[in-house]
Amino acid sequence: MTIDDRPGTDVGPILSDGTPFADLFDLDKHEVSMRLLKDPEVYRLELSRLFGKAWTVLAHETEIPNAFDYVARHIGADPVIVTRSRSGDVNVVLNICSHRGMQVCRGEAGNEKQFKCPYHGWSFSEQGKFMGSPVARGEHARAFRSKEELALPKARVELYAGFVFATRDEDAPSLDDYLGEIKFYRDLMFDRTESGLEVLGPPQRFVIPANWKCPGEQHAGDGYHAMTLHRSINELAASEADDSSMYGIDVSANGHGLRLIDRRKGKWKDNREAVLAAQTLPPFEKLKSIMLPPGMTPEMAEKLDKKLSEAQMKVLADYPPSVGGLFPNMGTFCFEFPTPMGMAAIISWHAFVPRGPGKFEFINWFPVEKDAPEDFKDLMRRASTLGLGTTGFVETDDADTWPLMTESAEGFMGEQQKIRYGALCGEDQPLDGYWDEGEFPGGGHLYPGFTKDDAQWNWWLRYRDFMLGDPWGP
To answer: Which parts of 227-349 fold into alpha helices (H)?
Structure first.
């Protein structure tokens, strides 16, 4: 028996043992089955129902600055080529020859005007157009198919903060609509200057033996794991020594999640008195004087009002966004980080690209502001490598946890266990200085107080929508 992949029903697809996909969720108790972390049938459904429709990040445009530059990446399990055309447009084309299925591009990055399949010599332009084959000027290739039909399929492409997003779903909403209300906050991290971001070289790439959903749901809003899993960082004095970063606001929208840190308390900085004194200043003055956004110099902060609204600067001054995720498989970071060379900042993007039910490729970009001084960029490079690099303080902790979660789901008893999200804060909780003055400047679902499970549970609900076949419903 095979799975029933009929579109959208109340119970979703039926797995081969007769289990309705919807039964893997307990909506009343906020629990999901650990079977979701290891089942090959679930993985196959994800490739079509989730990665065949959602917007996912593939690259940053500064990786391909020149015409005909390219990088090779994946959408789900499908190999694709991200190219820069002669006109400057960014394309994403399927890296599978329309002749016999060989990958036409075998390099990870480079500059090519045409991609020639090494098997039979079929050639394609950087935009995926079929150019011909070496036999009889390609006429044999068009006996049953037109030249247009033999082209490499293209994905829809849109950019945000220079990052290249793609979807294969023609019915998907625009990237702006997909981001929804979370974009208000993401702009405070990644779209703050007119010059924009660049990445510090090619991304780090490595494979972790774990299910991609382990990091995916964690980055939607798991804040309090830092108190235990990353405790060694505090003990090494590489992070704040108290739990003040646990307090703030969890924001959730469209399955995306983000943590806003309450900066008004001043507990988590060495210069607490100065921070507290700055509370009387207007938001713009705060940001220019003592509360510089991570990754920006005082001179750069002078120009924030050219990009950000007054409401955004108010949030950036009092509740700066720090760590979060974009649904389904992205992590994003923007925070200060102490190093032996002095205080620095980390801006980072992760992608968790599935390579099967039990492993994923971890892609790790380190962006910086283009206008930042070179010595400032170099310090951020060092801080990013130290904190979030392949062998950094943070990632070595996480990379130990996710494989063991996936391994736990392999057993007979393990797959019957539940992943639980019962620590809920709830919306509309009192937030001193904001709720009593009216609405919070930003939108989305807001969960103030000590970080809990709300945003992660919303990630799972969004995942469920896709898997039941109704991703763009109300």
So the answer is: 231-235, 272-277, 283-289, 298-301, 310-318
Beta strands in 289-416 (DSSP E): 321-326, 330-339, 342-354, 360-365, 367-369
Q: Residue 333's pLDDT band (boundaries 50, 70, 90)?
A: very high
Point out which residues pair with 342 in neighbouring strands: 339
Phi-psi region of 138 (alpha: psi -120 to 50; beta: other; left: phi over 0): left
Q: How far apart are alpha carbons 146 and 53 in whole angstroms?
A: 27
Euclidean distance between CA atoms 252 and 338, whole angstroms: 28
User: E strands, 43-175, where?
Assistant: 56-60, 69-75, 78-84, 90-94, 109-111, 114-116, 123-125, 130-132, 156-160, 163-167
DSSP 183: H
Predicted confidence (pLDDT) per residue in 436-463, tens digit: 555 788 889 999 888 899 999 999 999 9
Q: Residue 453 has what pLDDT?
A: 92
Distance CA 434, CA 346 (A): 28
One-letter amino acid of 84: R
Amino acid at 274: A
Looking at residue 202, its pLDDT comes to: 95
**Residue 431, pLDDT score:** 64
pLDDT in tens, 79-96: 999 999 999 999 999 999
Residue range 221-226: average pLDDT?
79
Burial of residue 409 (CB within 10 Å: 0-12, 13-18, 19+) is: buried
Terminal-to-terminal C-alpha distance of the chain: 33
Contact of 440 with 238, CB cutoff 8 Å: no
> In the structure, what pLDDT confidence band is assigned to residue 134 with cuts at 50, 70 and 90?
confident
pLDDT for position 352? 97
Which of these, 129, 131, 126, lies nearest to 82 by C-alpha position?
Answer: 126
Q: What is the reported pTM?
A: 0.91
* Dihedral angle of Cα 205, 207, 212, 214, to the nearest 10 degrees: -100
Helix (H/G/I), strand (E/B), else coil: 279: helix
pLDDT at 233: 65
| pLDDT tens column, 147-194 | 889 999 999 999 999 999 999 999 999 999 999 999 999 999 999 999
Q: What 3-state class would DSSP assign to 103?
A: coil
For residue 144, the tally of other CB atoms under 10 A from its CB is: 7
Cross-strand partners of 93: 81, 154
Q: In which element (H, E) is residue 291 found?
A: none
- b/e code 201-237 from CB counts within 10 Å (16+ = b): eebbeeebebbbbbbbbbbbbbbeebeebbeebeeee
